[in-house]
Amino acid sequence: MIEPEVAAGREQLIWTLLAEVPDPEIPVLSIVDLGIVRHVRQDADGRLHVGITPTYSGCPATEVIRIAVRAALDAGGHADAVLEEVLSPPWTSEWLTSAGRSKLKAFGIAPPEEPVLSPRRLWDAPLVTCPRCGSRASERVSEFGSTPCKAHYRCGACQEPFDYFKCL
Amino acid sequence: MSAHPAQQEAHFRYVLRLGDTSLVLGQRLGEWAGHAPALEEDLGLANLALDLIGQARLLLTYAGELEGRGRDEDALAFLRDAPEFANLTLAEQPNGDFGQTIVRQWLLDAWQLEIYEGLLVSADTRLGAISAKAVKETRYHHRFSSGWLMRLGDGTQESHDRVQGALDSLWRFTAELFAADDVDERMEAAAIAPALTELAPRWSARIDEDLRAATLKRPAAQPYPWHGRRGVHTEHLGHMLAEMQHLQRTYPGVRW
Q: 3-class DSSP state for residue A117?
């Protein structure tokens, strides 16, 4: 049996370690910023369990992230840690941390603005603030972008195209 | 989980059907890569394909475990012949023009929306978890496909006529979407699957609403159901699989 304080300390250590693992497709974000690390806990036998959830079912980064997390745990001396895939509850863009939102914006990607809209109304694209000039006069170019989690927008004020991190 | 063999078999087949429909539809959409009318739509269709293949991976992995014969997602996707595929016949229909692809997508997006929403409360929590993920993606897909249906249907005479034509020719495959057989009935009785008879009117209402907005006419019901889910396919699936499975069949076990 492990003392709770010791366990908590080790768990905190793992969170700090995982906060250094970048998302392979948006490397300014760590996987903790993205909200995909769902749990870090130590069981009664002292074994660590790390739960990761995919953003999208088919996100190709999931595999790369798993390898990176494994490598980070091994390098940190936690080779016995168990990696678990968590499907439920499903990831939502609301799990993006506020630090993550600021990093996205600084990187030129507009962070998610509103909860998921009714699928019925094609014309109700959310009003997205341009990450470069701050104008709200943007228009959607495409529902989809360079990765599953992004849509493609254009700013009407500064004319720059930009990525928008979709609400899901 | 120990269950009656017939029940276990039905459970496997139910999950396999969902996985195969996602896989086959995803592969079809993937055929558009580099050929869509505009770069944005090329990306859009590829993104839908990615989601669908992701769903297929989760479902086929699970199906393989239920079957218990050691087949993983790759064995199921790449090493079965057409008669062993259990997808809806509609999913395997060729892409045709962009309008035909949109009509096929929209009919199946609306179907998946109902199925996945119904599965959220499944007694099978793993299937419920997969559906909770998939339903969010499917809402996005439906917004894309119904949006294009409206643009094309309520667009020019040419675009209107083309999507109406596509709808008229694909409609005969929709009778299969909600035709329950023994697999569905077993799963429904075990509270694993939603009742298709309850989903059908909801699907129908959504279809009518979208058709109205798109100024398109609903074709008359054609009661003959196709049986893709039972392995009876149109000739198109074999051709599609020949391309999809070529690499694994030629070089068994090949890895990147």
A: coil
Give the gap in angstroms from C-alpha B196 to the nearest C-alpha of chain A.
Answer: 22
Considering Cα of A5, then A9, then A12, then A14, what sign does the dihedral take?
A: negative
- Taking an 8 Å cut-off on Cβ atoms, the answer to whether A119 and B54 are in contact is no
Question: What does residue A49 show for φ and ψ, rounded to 5 degrees?
Answer: -120, 125
The Cα of B55 is separated from the nearest Cα of chain A by a number of Å equal to 6
Query: In this predicted complex, what is the ipTM?
Result: 0.80
Lowest-pLDDT range, A65-74, A106-115, B155-164? A106-115
Q: Number of Cβ pairs closer than 8 Å across A and B? A: 84
B236 phi and psi, to 5 degrees? Answer: -65, -30
For A38, which DSSP code? E
Q: At A124, is the pLDDT very low, low, confident or very high (cuts 50, 70, 90)?
A: low
Tokens (6 digits) for B37? 């009318």
Closest CA in chain B for residue A152: B40
Q: Which residue from A58, A59, A90 is facing B136, i.e. has the nearest CB?
A: A90
Global pTM value: 0.90
Segment B124-179, tens digit of pLDDT:
999 999 999 999 999 999 999 999 999 999 999 999 999 999 999 999 999 999 99
The candidate with the shortest Cα–Cα distance to B112, out of B84, B78, B140, B77, is B140
Q: Which residue, among B15, B199, B13, has the nearest Cα to B118 in the 3D structure?
A: B199
- Using CB atoms, which residue from A60, A120, A141 is nearest to B40? A141
The SS3 assignment for B176 reads helix
Q: Alpha-carbon distance B109 to B146, whole Å?
A: 9
Given a contact cutoff of 8 angstroms between Cβ atoms, the answer to whether A82 and A50 are in contact is: yes
